[in-house]
Structures are given as C-alpha cells and as structure tokens.
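look at this fold:
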Amino acid sequence: MRNFKVFYRTAVGLILGLGWSLSAMAEPFSTVTGQKIAVPSYFYPGGGWNQLRQGAPTVGLAIINPNSGPGTQQDANYVHEVDASKASGVRVLGYVATGYGTRSQAAIKADIAKYLRWYAVDGIFLDEAPYSCLRKPYYQSLYQHIKAAQPDATVVINPGDVTGECFMQTADIIVNFEGSHAAYQKWQPAGWETRYTADRFWHLVYNTSLVNLSATVGLSKQRHAGWIYVTPDRMNNPWDTLPSRAYWRQEVEQVSQ
C-alpha cells in the first residue's frame, strides 16, 4: 500500500527548474496564528480515531484510506468513524492516488464517487501529485469535477514539496512539505506562498522526537503552514499510527498556541 511519498530535491534545482527567482525565496513570512492539525490518518477505525477526535477543535482535518482508496465495498466501521469525526467538528477527506498525473481520470472519478456515496466525506485528498506545472490541467479538471459534485468539498493536493504557484488553482490546500524531521530542518518555502493565507498550506513531518516536537511546530508556523501534522513514526509508513497520548497532548497544545 503506497500511502506516502518523499521527494529529495535541492533548492537550487527547484529554482532553476521552475523559474523562481532568488528574491522570491527571500520574501518574509509572518508567524502563523490560528494553526490547526490535519492528520493523514491511515489507520483502521478504533482507539486512534477516538484519540484524534479528542484534539478537536485544534484538529480540523483527517483522512480515511480503507485500501489505498475507497476499496471495493463500504466498510461500516469507516462510516461510523466519519460520522463521529464530523460530529466532533473534524472534516474528513477520502484518499485517492493519482499516480503523479498518470492515472486515468475515469478511475479517479470512480473512487471519488464511492467516497461521496459510501462515506459522505467532506472532501478529497489527491495524493501522488507532481511538482511540475505541466500537469496543472489534469489536476484542475479533477478539482472542478469534485467541486461540481460537492461544492463545499475541501480538495487537497499532495506534491509533498515546494511547487509552482500554478497549483493554487487546482486545490484548496497544498501539501508543500512531506518528509522527515531532518529534511524539514533544511527545507524552505518558495516565497510566493506569502500571497495566500496560511490555511492553503499543509506540512507533514515524521520521525520527530518528543524533544524536537515544539521546535518543529514553531518552525512550521514561521514557514506559513496553516495546517501541520508531526509524528515520531517513521518509514516505511509514518502515517499508519497516531502518536502516544503524551506526545499527542503536547502536539495539540503547541499547535493551539
């Protein structure tokens, strides 16, 4: 099951490849206030989901992912978790893989329809997105399709790294960082993000010790991330558990400050 991805690219390579200027990289960011947690909750219904909901209203988004997508039939346990999460104020998205813009849109739209019909999700998480603007029409078409089916849906796209500003027209939220704590120390936003509100950006940071949790959350606020999730979990799948209760309580507290 491929539920995550990590890109390793140099900042210089991105600047040259996408045509960004060094001056854009230097634009100042204001520290984010009102930050919230968005969880790639790729774990089965049960105790982890109960703990997740206890973090509301600081926790604002979660994702269901029955089988690297909606699966072949409705699962009553996920129906319960979606209903309970929505009742607690957490919006729930359905996970859909896009194959970096190569998967057929017919297959993707079929997955979207299942999520809406079986689970009444609040939106869609489009994973495995590229960072090149060449695939903008592909994702813009999916964005328009989702909004036509459910106008108030939250659409997230996950390139997992800095990308072109073009993708702001393809989603409500962009995951512009997904990677390890070590990689996050070296990573920088492109600079154009300052033209948009922080709630358009989401950072996912794994392999972060409790000792480094507070500093990592603080760094995400300095980097214009309105949505954040930090976990001590690590590869091969850092999103298949929720942190311990002690870690989780501290994360919720740090993010809410």
About this structure: The first strand starts at residue 36 and ends at 39. The chain has nine helices and eight strands. Residues 38 and 61 are 4 Å apart (CA to CA). The beta strands are 36-39, 59-64, 91-97, 123-127, 154-157, 173-180, 201-206, 227-230.
